[in-house]
Amino acid sequence: MNYEASFKHGILFALSAYIMWGILPLYWALIEGVSATEILMYRIVLSLVFMIILVPITKQTTQLKDDFQQFIKTPRKLLIIITAGYVVTLNWGTFIYAINEGFVLQTSLGYYINPLVSIFLAMLFFKERFNKLEWCAILFATIGVLYMTFKVGEFPFISLVLAFTFGIYGLLKKLVPMSAVSSITIESIATAPMAIIYLVIIGQSHGLSIGMNSSTFWLLFSGAVTAVPLLAFSAAAVRIPLSLIGFIQYIGPTLIFLNGIFIFKEPFNADQFITFCFIWFGIFIYILSQIFKIKRKPKPLQYHE
């Protein structure tokens, strides 16, 4: 696959991931009467089950074995991918807790801040540099996020945890380029023992919350709804710049806001509207900068037999 095709596929994967994440609160709203921590642990275990089923279906067994052998030769990569698994687990747990406890605004704010974290990490670790249009886009997005931050009126701890955990997760995925299926499978294997131990302990001491009800039914799909967007994100992370992924991520919190307004009937005030204006204008400028880059990029010579 050439660079241009890989780049286009990367954008499609990133769009798919963030659209799925943006509508995810609708799914979690179907699960009631189960604690955030217990949901998280089921989510981890069922993600592993889903990946065990998916690997042979997608004919990735050989690739997974090859990646494991690569890790044996380079333990540093194994440590990075295990760390990525626990970092994204912390992100999941924080997100579920925030939704269950009614911190929807902080959740959305966190995912607005996250692209700025991704851009910072891209500059720090990958030496990515930006032209004037891109800096202008970053400026407008930053103003929008800062405006919302100060309007919250409290220290956005949940927002910062969400922003930095997912930003670091994206960075770690860039450091260990590998197939998306292998990456998510290994992350699930690394975190599953913790989840299983927790569920066993809770089951023996207090009893688990699952039973013959609709919440348990929907919980069964938590592995798939967790793994599929992560697979799309992993596929995107090795194909396009981390900074571009950061801007595409604005789709996620925007969908969360739209769900809040039209589905959950939350009020949409002037402060949120002003924030949207800054952020969307920043995204528009960034898209223009990418179009100009593509147009200026010289096309490869075509050879004919």
Q: Could you explain the architecture of this structure?
A:
By secondary structure, the chain is an all-alpha fold. It has one domain. 80% of the residues lie in helices and 0% in strands. It is built from 13 helices and no strands. It has helices at 3-28, 36-57, 61-73, 75-100, 104-126, 132-152, 157-175, 180-205, 214-219, 222-237, 242-248, 251-262, 270-296. Helix 2 packs across helix 4 and helix 4 (75-100) packs antiparallel against helix 7. The protein starts with a helix and ends in a 9-residue tail after the last helix. Residues 301-305 have low confidence and may be disordered.
Summarize the structure.
With 305 residues, the protein is mainly alpha-helical. It has one domain.
How would you classify the quaternary structure? single chain
How far is the first residue's CA from the last residue's CA?
A: 21 Å
Along the chain, the helix and strand elements come as HHHHHHHHHHHHH
Q: On the 0-100 scale, what is the average pLDDT?
A: 84
User: Which sheet architecture does the biggest sheet show?
Assistant: none
User: What is the helical fraction, as a range of percent?
Assistant: over 70%
The structural class is: mainly alpha
How many distinct domains?
A: 1
Proportion of residues in β-strands:
under 5%
The total count of helices amounts to 13
Count of DSSP strands: 0
Subcellular location: Cell membrane
Protein name: Chloramphenicol-sensitive protein RarD
InterPro entries: EamA_dom, EmrE-like, RarD
Membrane topology: Multi-pass membrane protein
